[in-house]
Request: fold
Amino acid sequence: MNRNRVFAARSVRLSLSKLRPLAVLMSLGIAVFIFADSIVGAGISSYSNKISTNSALNYVEVTSVGPDSAREITDESLSRFSQIDHVVGSSGWAQIDLAIEDPANWPSPNNPGAFIGTPFISGITPKVLLGEVSADGPGEGQILLPDKGQGQKYDQLLGKEMNFVYTREIGPGNGEPVSMSLRVAGIYDNSSPGTDGAQAAYVSSKVVQSTLANARPNTKALTYPRAFVRADSADEVVNVQNQVRALGYSVNSVAGQIRSLSGLFALLALVSWLIGGFLVIFCLGVGVSVGGSWIKQRAREVGLLKAIGWSGASIAGVYMVELAAVGLIIGLTGALLGTLCSSVGTAVFSGLQLDLLPVAAWAMPNWLLVLGALFCVPLFLCLGAVGHVARLARLDADSSLRDL
Amino acid sequence: MTSVLRLENITKSFADERGNRQLVLPGVSMNVEAGEIVWLRGESGSGKSTILNISGLLSTPDTGRVWIDGDDRTNASPRTASLVRSIEIGMVFQSSNLLPELTAMENVLLASRESTTRAAMIEQLERFGLAAVADRQAKRLSGGQQQRVAFCRALINRPSLLLADEPSSGLDRANTEVILDAMRTGANSGCGVLVASHDEVFQQVAHRQLPMKELLLEQK
Reply:
């Protein structure tokens, strides 16, 4: 039997009992913080990360003809772009006319399903409304069709495997139809068409390349009117842009025009940690408050303990252990509750499919924050109270006992 | 006989509500020998508790010297004072001052040294007729039982000096007898006992009486 352990255990039970409303409030607060991080913090961090690394912000658009250059973009050019530092990929952009071969698959007798085959550029291509398409876009043998055109919706074509025809040059002004089979993997939102046009039908870059090569067999080297060079982050775009320009190409980028954006998203990504910061301040405040209240409430106890031979240091030590234990219990309760709420909450928010909060369903919270709650709560509770506990331990036993 | 407690010319004053110093002890000298029961008798407010607290190193005198077991402990550091209280001094208060949520055994444990075994604590409780309630929470014990637990706690380390402040307050005859018996047993095993009380019952056990009036008059 250890007297410190016995006293601490009794004190922890008493403290939890007396501080029950505060303990419940703190546990709930911790749970809310963890939950908020999972939904808001993680969502915003994920969104800002996505914006910074996989959106129009981290692309450099290269054109073959511009105000300061006239240089062809070929596969060799794309290869040179890919070798630039901080470039994670480059894609040539060119379009080819496609039409649905079988009239039975036409959207209507008057609408032969004419589209413009366009390479899918991840982060730039409009939002997919229907169908399952990976973040890298349609794979081999797949095509994304626009949502509507010529007054009609195309969603009835979703999932269909159809032949699309294009024209292959067989001589000057002469061509023949060539068909290729593609499955409609998704329908995208073309309500706000960009430079690709309202009737763009997205296929993979490889499909565009092979189709173009097949359509122009007499052309020695495939050239592209445009190319997109992707940097690993929006911060590197200007640097990449300059290097591409130095190779003699005309360039443009969005990130280059919005210099402060990366800083903004970096700040948003700190949301999780800001939430944690509030938790720390809250715990410090509670520690100070509890420690302060103990000065009066436990003076008698201190006098008694000193009278039976306890030193001030022993008393302070056992009170700090008590605070740490109470904090650990509160932190553990809050962490468990927060983890449960995060799991359920992310499932709910994931189901809502909010663009600004792209969270995965049944996601676990940031484990660093959970660990932080477990250790920071007792730590900062103790830090907040340490001054008062030291004062308590130095109380004059004589006057404390006289107050009985 | 060895003095377990010696007070030399102890003065002590306290500040009242207005901050004026009130002299409680004008220069008290007294001693307690090993195996002796000394009854410090006087009414409430006469300074008995002050003498006990100074003797227990819970309070420092303004002037004078305090000797515990032959060692000058007047200006002992807080750490040394704690050590002396834990090893050489046992204290019993007017109200038992047990921690109500702890059991009788656990309250005794609070004062015991690390080397004290559970068996020794049970034995101590048995001496005071408390073995059956060892695991009962202090708040569920009667007033008499609580005071007996307080004596157990004070004597668990076999101190050389036992200080008791109005230990019979609120006790019935049977419980008072148990306490008197504890004092006799303590004194017989070499412990010096200083009991401060206005209760005449301590006449039965005291080897010596020290009326506060005479003690204070002597010094004046």
